[in-house]
Structures are given as structure tokens and as C-alpha cells.
Amino acid sequence: MKAEPVQIRDALAGERTALERLQRESSDVWEQYREQLAAHPDAIELPAAWIDNGWVRVASDAQDIPIGFSAVIPSDDGHYDLDGLFVAPDRMHAGIGRALVQDACARAQADGATSLQVIAGPATAFYEKVGFEIVSSAQTRFGPAVRMRRRLQH
After folding, report:
1. What is the CATH number of the domain that holds 35?
2. pTM attached to this predicted model
3. Model confidence pLDDT, tens digit, residues 6-38
């Protein structure tokens, strides 16, 4: 799929349910997680406080409908966490995830972060393509993963 222009903006409180639905659809593309996510629907939760704090950014289409989102959680140690990055399945491979990562990096850097970290499972190859490096192994609720980091310029 060809890259499309994407508008990225802060999430709105009223979008929380739609973003959680988008997260579920995006997560379901990974066959190894479908059964576990169905058994644990609480794993798909976007805390309202994250939206209220401005930590959630939405990629929207020309009609301002959310087609992806990211959640970046600040920290005091300069290593911000990319706690979520989800793209609607019918919009994957169109540059939306890359645009959300670029937006997350720019915002974290502007806020003084030295790096952006993510815990990645099956999407490891995507994160490597957008500048993240594996720094350690990690364990998630659903199995083994890796911790990845992208250093930010200052």
C-alpha cells in the first residue's frame, strides 16, 4: 500500500472507545495473541488520564476519522515509553505507523527526552525499520518480547 498523507493530532476524550476498538482490531492481526486477547479483554484499555494528559496522539484520515494512534508516557529519567502504537489493519503498510513514530520522537525530544523505548513482540522488524535497536529481552503478560530503544538527538 502506498504512503498517504496523515494528519496527527491530540486524542479527544470522546474518542477513547473508538481508539480501544482500533487497538483490538490492530492487535488481532497477530495470530499468536488473538486467543489471549479474547480471554483477557481488559488488556485492551486506554486510560482516560493518558488522553487527558495529552500522551495519546491520533492519526486521522481526510474525514478526521482515527486510523491509528500512539501513546507516549513521559518519565523522569529521559527514557520515554512508547506504550502503544496501533494502526487500523486496512491502513497498515501505508506509512501511518512511521508517521506516528516520527511524531512521538519529535514530541519526546522537544520535551527533553533522550530516547524513546518500546516493548516489542511480533512488530520488532517494524521498529527496527524506524530506527529502534534491541537493548534487552522483556517479558509481557502474554509472553517473551524485547525492549527496544531509539536515541533522540539533542
Report:
1. 3.40.630.30
2. 0.89
3. 899 999 999 999 999 999 888 877 776 667 666
